[in-house]
Write a structure and sequence with these properties.
Layout: E1 2-6, H1 11-14, H2 18-26, E2 30-34, H3 40-44, E3 50-51, H4 62-72, E4 76-80, H5 84-92, E5 97-100, E6 126-128, H6 137-142, E7 145-147, E8 169-173, H7 181-192, E9 197-201, E10 217-220, H8 225-228, E11 234-237, H9 241-249, E12 254-256, H10 263-272, E13 276-278, H11 286-298, H12 303-315, H13 320-326
Parallel strand pairs: 1-2, 1-4, 2-3, 4-5, 5-6, 6-7, 8-9, 8-11, 9-10, 11-12, 12-13
Helix pairs in contact: 2-13, 4-5, 7-11
């Protein structure tokens, strides 16, 4: 079977699709992947045959993909939530397809079209990597869902094994789209007060903009979250879907500092579940960060127990290999 995947050219949107694409390849299917050039090295390293449709660099519009659909004639098309134009192109050609989520169904007004309301490609099931207890209730009630366990993806080349420091470790990241030097510095200054080891993924912020760092703080441009999270006592981050689900899968309590996009909706959902604390932008100070993380480290408020309960729920979801074996079922279309 020939399977075509497509996603936005950004890690937060396309990395969640890669574990299933790899599993589909391992199941013996021929896999191709449409995305902008920025994602190609990660895809090519796993033999996923990446290509850039027409002039697409980030978004993929229907007219970008239509010639490639005629060329490849896939049996099944798996399209990320962020590329509704690609879904519409496949639907018009009668190619069966599945939506693939990147987390909780996102709200209106963040610059993406909600797949459940895209009338150009109706009736397509959703590969849903969000645990049901956190998923949007309307989406749960109305969408055809295929549960899929979220698996954190780390791009090659292989990194040295992560060696956790002695004592408690706190991981800090603001993702690749919303971080600023000012916000990272405030969080670092707060965490440094606690005497714990702090590992920081600087993302879009050049590390030199953070100035002199305390001895207990390590800053890297990029961190393999899958390696670090199992060793973390707490995670401080922006509330992006990937980091939120990754920390929950590891059973780690979190302090969320939402900045935009779907981060506020994610924060509301996991706060209601009791697994996290939050600080909104006008409340982020070094002392506030220190106080909230100290609460998490001390085990007050039941956040660790709530995180572990969600980790158990996530672990019970079907793994990518299980779902990949079932993909031929969906080639008949809606």
């Amino acid at each position: 079977m020939r399977v075509l995947f497509a996603g936005l050219s950004s890690p937060g949107h396309t990395y969640p699709l890669i574990p299933l694409a790899i599993a589909a390849r391992d199941a013996g299917h021929e896999v191709h992947f449409a995305a902008g050039d920025a994602i190609h090295p990660a895809l090519a390293a796993h033999g996923l045959r990446p290509f850039r449709p027409a002039d697409a660099f980030y978004e993929i519009y229907a007219e970008d993909l239509e010639p490639e659909l005629d060329r490849l004639r896939p049996d099944l098309f798996v399209h990320g939530w962020g590329v509704p134009g690609a879904a519409a192109a496949a639907y018009r050609r009668g190619i069966p397809g599945l939506w693939h989520g990147f987390g909780r169904m996102f709200p209106d007004g963040i610059g993406l079209r909600i797949p459940t309301r895209v009338d150009e490609a109706p009736g397509r099931p959703h590969l849903d990597i969000c645990p049901p207890s956190l998923q949007d209730k309307d989406f749960l009630a109305t969408a055809e869902r295929i549960p899929l366990r979220p698996v954190m993806y780390a791009p090659p080349p292989p990194r040295p094994d992560f060696t956790p420091p002695a004592g408690a470790l706190v991981y800090l990241t603001l993702g690749t789209a919303f971080g600023t030097a000012e916000l990272l510095t405030a969080a670092i200054d707060g965490l440094a007060q606690l005497g714990v080891a702090v590992v920081v993924a600087a993302g879009r912020v050049p590390p030199h903009e953070l100035g002199a760092l305390p001895a207990n703080v390590t800053v890297e441009p990029w961190v393999d979250q899958a390696a670090v999270l199992p060793h973390a006592a707490a995670v401080v981050h922006h509330g992006g879907s990937g980091t939120t689900l990754g920390a929950l899968a590891a059973g780690v309590p979190q302090l969320l500092l939402p900045q935009g996009a779907d981060q506020y909706a994610n924060t509301d959902a996991v706060t209601s579940a009791g697994a996290v604390l939050r600080l909104l932008p006008d409340a982020v100070t070094p002392d506030a960060v220190a106080d909230e993380v100290l609460t998490l480290l001390a085990g007050r408020g039941g956040h660790r127990d709530a995180s572990r309960a969600l980790a158990t729920e996530i672990a019970a979801m079907p793994a990518p290999a299980e779902v990949a074996r079932e993909l031929p079922r969906y080639t008949a279309g809606p």
